[in-house]
Amino acid sequence: MMRAAISMMRRELVGLESVLMREIDALASQIHEASHREQLSAQALTDSNALAQVLELTESGRRAIQAIHTTVERGFLATRVSLEQMPHVLSEYQQIRHRLAPDQIALPGLGGWAVTVPVVSAIAGRLLLDDRPLTVLELGSGASTFWTALAISRSGRGRCVSLDHIAEFAQKTRDMLRANGVADHADVLYSPLVAQEVNGSTYEYYDLSVLPDDLAIDVLIIDGPPGIPNANTRYPAIPLLYDRLQPGALIVVDDTIRADERKAMASWQGQFPDIVWEADLGKATLLRRG
Ligand SMILES: C[S@@+](CC[C@H](N)C(=O)[O-])C[C@H]1O[C@@H](n2cnc3c(N)ncnc32)[C@H](O)[C@@H]1O
Question: How much is the pTM?
């Protein structure tokens, strides 16, 4: 049913797009006709500043519609892919619930602002499989902190430290952990964003002085600070934390469907050749320090 609705929306948008294109074309020919009526020569037409500006506007309108078309097509494709993956994600969710929280009825939701099911599944898988106590550092607290703390409580070893740059959100996450009985397995630390220089540029980034000195990271979750387009807000994570990453550490980078996060990943891999791609996790990517 959803697939049919998407196809219908797509047809309607394509229809609207051709109406707009036709109107722009009609406008352009009206301008040409008007200029002929005024008996302007082709040269005068080009020289006429006002006319050239109007023609440029119709052309940029045409380009804008083409750009909208590309974006909408990409959106449709992403929606179709998500729909096709839904049964798989649902069954993955059921498996995690069964493994981690078989008796709990209400659990903090995943997706939206929070990380998604494949991310939780990858983190829990690593925490449950390894027989060493593992340390998770999370940048950006929330539902993911709960699921990580739950996996740690089920494995009976390890710890999670989660940073949040908003004191109120840090407290919300602590309250949620306590309400769900896993507060002993994660420390949520308030870490305001402070101006820091990284490789010659200044970023507003977590104050990492709040971290315990002995923190050696086995799993790093990069889901903050919130992305600001073109500000590359999450790039400092690896340059600032690389020395604390254990060999074999997993790095979960959320939101790699965004250009900034993909750019940050490419920079890290250029600077640190032992950081390698491990898996795609829906809207996130899993890297590993080799
Ligand atoms: C992408 S969120 C982190 C989400 C978290 N890792 C999770 O999976 O739930 C990044 C930051 O946004 C803030 N935040 C969390 N939930 C939010 C919400 N519902 N609305 C606005 N900001 C939120 C918090 O300060 C958080 O550290």
Answer: 0.78
